[in-house]
Design goal:
Elements: H1 3-27, H2 37-56, H3 60-86, H4 91-100, H5 102-118, H6 128-146, H7 148-151, E1 155-157, E2 168-170, H8 173-195, H9 199-203, H10 206-223, E3 229-230, E4 233-234, H11 238-256, H12 265-271, E5 276-280, E6 285-288, H13 297-301, E7 306-309, E8 312-319, E9 322-329, H14 331-380, H15 382-397, H16 402-428, E10 431-433, H17 434-450, E11 455-458, E12 465-467, H18 468-485, E13 491-497, E14 500-506, E15 519-523, E16 526-532
Parallel strand pairs: 11-13
Antiparallel strand pairs: 1-2, 3-4, 5-6, 5-9, 7-8, 8-9, 10-12, 13-14, 14-16, 15-16
Length: 540
């Protein structure tokens, strides 16, 4: 619906409301509780008009003047009710209340002029003398009306004010009052048109002029006593005609845009490039912009964002009385997300390759470390390996030596195996359990017993960790002592006591390698060797 159509519909609604109030005033019986129906309807309309101005006008000065205009209409309606309901039988009071009609009748066009002057006040200037003249002249006319009983320049009555409410004539000031009201009204339209910069609003100025035409016609016919009457009563009293004319003027001016307001939401949504819409709590669309896509009830009821298509997302937010929906073009966001995914995949591939490279490097390092350990092991057990080769060759040459040589080979092989195990543990741990050394010694003694030599081992009472390097030295020294004692060895006892490996060997004297830290004592054909499990000065 266009702005002109909406404005004409508003004027039609006001005209129908005026007819309704006039019918109530004419046809409702003048009895208790019914005689003031038209006044109550008019009062409710005036208060609604005041609230509308207070809520919809943007500029504070314009809003203040329009609220004052609507307040004067409320005063006028109140005076009308007081005259016809409360003081109808008290002629003096009723007549002066009738005079008071013209206070709001003259102040309303004056404050309407102030309203027009407040619109675009930064762009248009009025001389202060003109404003002062308007105020003083309006005040003079009000004073002449209120003191009419003294001079009769506005209304003239029969002697003794007999039949004053119906039998009176107008004095010379009365036409001046109407002319002044008309001039102020013309000034309002002239100022508003002069300040308006919107050609569309200027073209529609004839719409708020319709209630002006009605008001002028009513005043002329009312003054000439030609306005239609029903059952002797005017079809629409003077206050009703003026109130609805003023409402039509100001609401029409607001609707066509001559008075800035925040009521043009429908037009705003029509012109807005934002794809948005507002719906009530029943999901009935109230406003929708031209490029907003229709939404289903399920989509509107969704508490989360709705994806209409790949690049269009609809957001929802609760507002007073309903919900607001707006569309968001996420094409650029999708493009960036796609690029980020590609970059992420590339980085993931590079990270995977880097991880594999690191794993390969770690594996290579572990292999190299193990290789170095194996090289060290091979170097340390080289004498035993050579002796095994020699024993095997000797047994092959002389089968009679096979059984004895194989027992020695097994003893040497056990040493190689156990030394390799201890070396691998030492490569991964700085300390190893004392029990690991005991197991190595114990397995060597088992093959000593297989050779027919009594051998006994005593485990440690409380196993303690010992340095890995020292465990290898102790086991290698034990093997050296054992191999040197084998030709004459008749008995062997090994024990772990107080952090020392103790060896008691029966047979010939046991030579100790030079530079070792073992202690040797010989007594009665028995050699006693003590090998500390920790180097001198090492913490226990």
């Amino acid at each position: 619906m266009t702005t002109a159509a909406r404005s004409l519909l508003l004027q039609l609604q006001l005209a129908l409301l005026f007819v309704l109030v006039a019918c109530i005033s004419v046809f409702v019986p003048s009895v208790f509780l019914l005689c003031g129906c038209s006044t109550l309807v008019l009062m409710a309309f005036s208060l609604a008009l005041m609230l509308y101005f207070s809520d919809h006008i943007i500029d504070p000065d314009t809003r203040r003047y329009l609220v004052t205009v609507s307040g004067l209409i409320v005063l006028w309606v109140t005076l009308r009710g007081a005259k016809y309901i409360a003081f109808e039988e008290t002629e003096v009071i009723a007549r002066h209340i009738w005079y008071l009609y013209y206070v709001p009748a003259l102040l309303i066009p004056l404050f309407s002029l102030f309203t027009a002057l407040s619109v675009g006040k930064r762009e248009w200037r009025v001389r202060p003398k003109t404003i002062r003249f308007a105020v003083v002249f309006t005040g003079l006319l009000i004073a002449l009306i209120l003191t009419n009983d003294l001079h009769g320049l506005v209304f003239r009555f029969a002697p003794g004010f007999a039949g004053w409410d119906a039998d009176y004539t107008h004095g010379p000031v009365f036409p001046v009052v109407y002319l002044w009201i008309l001039l102020l009204t013309i000034g309002v339209f002239y100022i508003l048109l002069s300040r308006c910069r919107l050609s569309a609003s200027r073209k529609l100025v004839w719409i708020p002029l319709l209630p002006v035409l009605f008001g002028v016609t009513y005043l002329v016919l009312y003054t000439l006593d030609l306005w239609p009457r029903i059952h002797g009563n005017l079809f629409g009293e003077f206050p009703e005609a003026v109130c609805f004319s003023l409402a039509g003027i100001w609401l029409g001016l607001i609707r066509i845009g001559l008075i800035p307001s925040n009521a043009g939401y429908g037009r705003l949504f029509e012109l807005s490039s934002l794809a948005a819409q507002i719906a009530d709590r029943s999901y009935r669309v109230i406003y929708r912009s031209g490029n907003a896509a229709p939404l289903s009830r399920e989509q509107m009821a969704s508490s989360s964002d709705v994806l209409l298509e790949e690049n269009t997302r609809v957001h929802r937010k609760p507002v007073a009385g309903g919900y607001v929906y707006w569309q968001d073009d996420i094409a650029e966001l999708n493009r960036l997300n796609g690029e980020l995914r590609e970059v992420g995949e590339t980085l993931a591939e590079e990270a995977s390759l880097l991880r594999l490279k690191n794993e390969l490097a770690e594996q290579r390092a572990r292999i190299e470390a193990k290789t170095r350990v194996y090289d060290v092991i091979a170097e340390q057990v080289l004498p035993q390996s050579r002796r095994i080769d020699a024993l095997c060759a000797q047994a092959q040459a002389d089968p009679a030596l096979y059984a004895q040589n194989m027992k020695t080979v097994c003893l040497l092989a056990v040493y190689i195996k156990r030394y390799a195990n201890l070396s691998l543990l030492a490569a991964e741990h700085e300390e190893i359990a004392e029990g690991e050394l005991f197991l190595a010694v114990s397995e060597s003694l088992r093959w000593v017993r297989e050779m027919g030599i009594p051998a006994l081992e005593t485990p440690p009472e409380q196993a303690q960790p010992i340095p890995s390097r020292r465990a290898l030295q102790v086991y290698a020294l034990f093997e050296t002592i054992l191999e040197s004692a084998l030709p004459s060895l008749t008995g062997l006892q090994v024990s772990f006591r107080g952090g020392t490996l103790r060896i008691a060997a029966e047979g010939g004297e046991i030579p100790l390698p030079q530079g070792c830290d073992a202690q040797l004592e010989t007594e009665g054909g028995v050699s006693y060797v003590r090998i500390p499990l920790r180097e001198a000065g090492a913490p226990v």
